[in-house]
Design a protein that fits this description.
The structure is a homodimer of 156-residue chains. With 156 residues, chain A is α+β, with helices and mostly antiparallel strands. The first copy, chain A, has a domain at 1-85: Winged helix-like DNA-binding domain superfamily/Winged helix DNA-binding domain (Arc Repressor Mutant, subunit A), CATH 1.10.10. Chain A has helices at residues 9-17, 22-30, 36-43, 47-60, 81-84, 87-100, and strands at 63-69, 74-79, 108-112, 120-124, 136-140. In chain A, strands 1-2 form a two-stranded antiparallel sheet. The longest helix of chain A is centred in the middle third of the chain and has 14 residues, at 47-60. The first copy, chain A, is globular and about 55 Å long. The N and C termini of chain A lie close together (9 Å). Residues 150-156 of chain A have low confidence and may be disordered. Chains A and B meet through helix 1, helix 2, helix 3, helix 6 and strand 3 of A and helix 1, helix 2, helix 3, helix 6 and strand 3 of B. Strand 5 (136-140) of chain A pairs antiparallel with strand 3 of chain B. The first copy, chain A, binds a DNA duplex (30 and 30 nucleotides) through residues 20, 35-37, 40, 46-52, 69, 71-75.
Chain lengths: 156, 156
DNA sequence: CGAATGGGTTTGAAAAGCCAACCCATTGGG
DNA sequence: CCCAATGGGTTGGCTTTTCAAACCCATTCG
């Protein structure tokens, strides 16, 4: 046995979209930038890397490649429903950076329908109350994996 | 000029915590797993890589290294306030994976104080209404950068 | 005494990243 | 007609990272 790491949806998600540039590609697509050339420049990704990232994101089902011209054949990339559902990840990443890295000069601002600049807050969809550290308890379902404690988690 | 990529808090945040394993380290720390050995096994990170990641996360101010024993000197890693504020990122990543990758068997479940399993929802802190794609408008403050459109964004 | 724990560092090979150059088809301008 | 630009890539060759496994050191446990 090679001592598998903790089974976890965070790890699984990052295995799909956690490589360098992948989330920046998603950002561009969700800003309406859908073409190879422009995505390459806006993200800073080398073109060959971008090719492999796009391929992976399409395979993963978060983007789809759509032909918008025959003769010459040209394609653009669009977020699927699953891809759009990654927006909360982008929003929370941006909020953290705005607060801790660019507090005095936010490069991009999200305006909410209510007219205010968005301060995202995470709430429980059931009760509507805030879901922060203190209001959450993690339950690890996988056998042999606890949250902490001195017990040996897997191997012999 | 080498055509700088779009200035963006998402990119800036990922530059700090976007490398492989970094967010998994944060996950472990926020689950209460604070020691080198156990973090290494639970994340699957090679030990040398873990060393460099931890160093970077400490420099970035999201973790702090705390000595819990002299003779022999032993250390543990704790989340700073800034580090704890990354939890929304972990929560949204996990929610996406739970929904799209592990729908029938979530490895970890977060229970909210209200007693229900957490379905995180992002709302506007001002008005309290949901903040999804359709209720948000991006305003790019940096000059020369639009959200889309055919205009050339930076270079000559 | 010998093994285990804890926190790393070292080594050498494999993989990934990166840049610049190239390719092909079509459109647009002089 | 010819030349450059646009769009969407691929290729070559070098540099950087990653990785697994081994090693190191101090202390404690049996």
């Amino acid at each position: 046995m090679k001592a598998a790491p903790r089974p976890c949806s965070i790890a699984d998600t990052l295995a799909l979209v956690g490589e360098k540039y992948s989330l920046l590609v998603l950002r561009e697509v969700s800003l309406g930038v859908r073409r190879f050339d422009r995505i390459a420049r806006n993200t800073g990704a080398p073109r060959d890397i971008l090719t492999t990232r796009l391929k992976r994101l399409v395979e993963a089902g978060v983007l789809e490649k759509v032909q918008y011209s025959e003769r010459p054949p040209r394609f653009e990339y669009r977020a699927t429903a699953a891809g759009e559902e990654l927006q909360p990840v982008l929003v929370t990443l941006m909020a953290w950076g705005d607060r801790h890295l660019n507090a005095d000069d936010r490069p991009v601002v999200l305006e909410h329908r209510c007219g205010e600049v968005l301060s995202p807050r995470i709430v429980c969809a059931h009760c509507g109350d805030e879901a922060d550290r203190d209001s959450l308890t993690a339950h690890v379902r996988a056998p042999g994996w606890t949250t902490a404690g001195p017990t040996t988690p897997r191997e012999a």
